[in-house]
Design a protein that fits this description.
With about 220 residues, this protein is mainly β. It has 1 helix and 12 strands. The chain is globular.
Length: about 220
């Protein structure tokens, strides 16, 4: 088991060079439309019981982090951002693996739109374009079934559900987006069991293809 506690500092500057006629950027009605700098400090707490970093078969990974952006550190926006990431890996028969993840993110105060939790991407809610759905609160979960097929080839099947909302009471089961799909794995580094992966994900009237190293989570 490994428990780690860390201190984080983050600085970023963004500029919007072309608003593409977006009405929220043109009339400056959305927080962050004028871009600018963000600067903040935070913490990270991790409890890691995985038996392997790149291809865990047993154990869990749990991480809680918080960031505090303030004008005292030169930030143009004062806001807080928190994230909770919980994962569990279960080894089944014939070296098959069930991987489970729950992730929650929350922001408060003057959060610029580009820092709001975003649903989708190549790691969670695959099939949705990352950033199409953004809001102050994000909650998602996914389950992935992993198996070896032959030689260095493996496959996965996954399903997930998630949503974003402005306040806790805004989460309703009927509004949750569903993500599902499958993927292939090619063992790239046998010593560290690092896979090349390609996933095909499907969402509600949308889909996506994802390429990368390592597992999605």
């Amino acid at each position: 088991d490994a428990t780690r506690i860390g201190i984080i500092y983050r600085y970023s500057f963004r500029d919007i060079t072309d608003d593409l006629g977006n009405p929220f950027l043109v009339d400056k009605s959305v927080q962050g439309a004028e871009a600018g700098s963000i600067s903040g400090v935070g913490f990270s707490w991790t409890w890691d019981t995985r038996d392997h970093i790149f291809y865990p078969q047993n154990g869990g990974y749990n991480r809680l982090s918080g960031m505090y952006y303030t004008s005292d550190l030169g930030s143009d926006y004062d806001y807080n951002r928190y994230e909770l990431d919980l994962r569990r890996y279960i080894k089944l028969r014939n070296d098959r693996i069930l991987a489970i993840q729950t992730i929650a993110q929350a922001t408060f105060n003057e959060t610029p739109f580009y820092e709001l939790p975003a649903l989708g991407g190549q790691r969670t809610m695959r099939g949705y374009y990352e950033g199409r759905f953004r809001d102050r609160l994000y909650l998602a979960g996914q389950v992935e079934y992993r198996m070896h097929l032959f030689w260095k080839i493996g496959a996965v099947a996954f399903v997930g559900a998630g949503d974003v909302t402005h306040e806790i009471g805004g989460f309703t089961v009927r509004d949750f987006k569903i993500s599902s799909g499958a993927g292939l794995r090619v063992l790239f580094n046998e010593a560290e069991h690092v896979n090349l992966r390609v996933d095909l994900g499907f969402g509600r009237n949308t889909n996506g293809v994802y390429f990368g190293l390592e597992e999605a989570f």
